[in-house]
Amino acid sequence: QVQLVESGGGVVQPGGSLRLSCAASGFTFSSYGMHWVRQAPGKGLEWVAFIRYDGSNRYYADSVRGRFTISRDNSKNTLYLQMNSLRTEDTAVYYCTRVLYGDPFFGYWGQGTLVTVSS
Amino acid sequence: EIVLTQSPGTLSLSPGERATLSCRASQSVSSSYLAWYQQKPGQAPRLLIYGASSRATGIPDRFSGSGSGTDFTLTISRLEPEDFAVYYCQQYDNSPLWTFGQGTKVEIK
């Protein structure tokens, strides 16, 4: 079955950097687009970034564009999110998600990893 | 940017009752690109409905989705204890941009 396991979260100071990873298994990783979605404590869901199955196109929310970079290593079945210039408002649980098929839905979710930006 | 507004913010119902959740878009949304998710406390969201009305794998048939244009509805025909949760609608446009509504909490009355 599809499994997505995030790691790399933690506490970082404002202006700092962090790299999240998402290990995928149970499906052909190189065939599916992948997203990062985040949820601030007690708040709703916010889409962060998307990368196509082959890494050819990447898209970002305005709130993170220029600071975050989504990437993938299909040989390692792993998705990444490099987060630079972190702000307190980036504090959230970050979820790795897979498209359902080749469509714009978040079909499968990891358990999430918490990023806390605080001095 | 299309904004999704969900109502009500909180729905207080008893098990066995019918729940009707609304998702209104600021501009017309393709039905093919509208989905609903369920999130329970401490858990990741789960896809319930995609394409406005198609149930995801394993979703009970008491969950149904409908609507078109700017008005979409998620209906839970008879609430089970495990259905008390927060529900989000989500849309995609060709910017590309993915957006969520702010959520509706279904709580036990």
H/E topology pattern of chain A:
EEEEEEEEEEE
N- to C-terminal separation of chain B? 36 Å
Output the number of helix runs of chain B.
Answer: 0
- The global form of chain A is globular
Structural class designation of chain A: mainly beta
Radius of gyration of chain B: 13 Å
Can you write the helix and strand succession of chain B as a string? EEEEEEEEEE
Q: pLDDT average of chain B, as an integer?
A: 96
| Number of alpha- plus pi-helical segments of chain A | 0
Quaternary structure: heterodimer
Strand segment tally of chain A: 11
Q: Any idea what the radius of gyration of chain A is?
A: 13 Å
Shape descriptor of chain B reads globular
Largest interface: A-B, 20 and 21 residues
Q: How does the major sheet of chain B shape up? A: 7 strands, mixed
| Average pLDDT taken over every residue of chain A | 97
Level of helix content of chain A? Answer: under 10%
Report the portion of residues of chain B in β strands: over 45%
